[in-house]
Amino acid sequence: MRGSNDYRVVVFGAGGVGKSSLVLRFVKGTFRDTYIPTIEDTYRQVISCDKSVCTLQITDTTGSHQFPAMQRLSISKGHAFILVFSVTSKQSLEELKPIYQQIVQIKGSVESIPIMLVGNKCDETQREVESREGEAMAKEWKWTVPRGDGGVTLWGQSRAAPVPTP
């Protein structure tokens, strides 16, 4: 799918962290507050970027560890990655470490690959993960400091080529 303006974006994270809700909010402008487990869904979104049209193929992956071959395939085909955890689950943040390591292992150098760490459910009152913990992981991976947007906090690589946003 890699044309000059086509990008594969892969969304990883534990089950129930809100990956599908984030993707559906971006693609369809809707919000789903009920949990429906995903095996893998792919959405296409055409956006305007840098005075041209870009197509994002967004893969919403399973939160289960039952499909390691699918995970490796998604990483090998991905051009950008979104790693999602819930601030209501410290375990969900910890589960991202091996995923990030697998991205590094499969892709080699990731300095030019856009990777974003997303702390989701920031609007929830029950918290197990403070912003400083997400920030510490981002710094460990040599990423930039966070910026918040509603119920989400984002960290990303500072040296990566930007993924276009609408």
Describe the structure.
β6 (147-149) and β7 form a beta hairpin. The chain has helices at residues 19-28, 68-77, 90-94, 96-107, 131-140, and strands spanning 6-13, 40-49, 52-61, 80-86, 115-120, 147-149, 152-156. The protein is of the alpha/beta class. The protein is built from 5 helices and 7 strands; from the N terminus they run βαββαβααβαββ. It is globular and about 40 Å long. The chain has a 7-stranded mixed sheet, sandwiched between helices. GO terms for molecular function: GTP binding; GTPase activity.
How is the biggest beta sheet arranged? 7 strands, mixed
Number of strands: 7
* Low-pLDDT stretches: 158-166
Which radius of gyration do the C-alpha atoms yield? 15 Å
Summarize the structure.
Pfam families: Ras (PF00071). It is built from 5 helices and 7 strands.
How do the helices and strands line up, and which of them pair or pack?
Elements: E1 6-13, H1 19-28, E2 40-49, E3 52-61, H2 68-77, E4 80-86, H3 90-94, H4 96-107, E5 115-120, H5 131-140, E6 147-149, E7 152-156
Parallel strand pairs: 1-3, 1-4, 4-5
Antiparallel strand pairs: 2-3, 5-7, 6-7
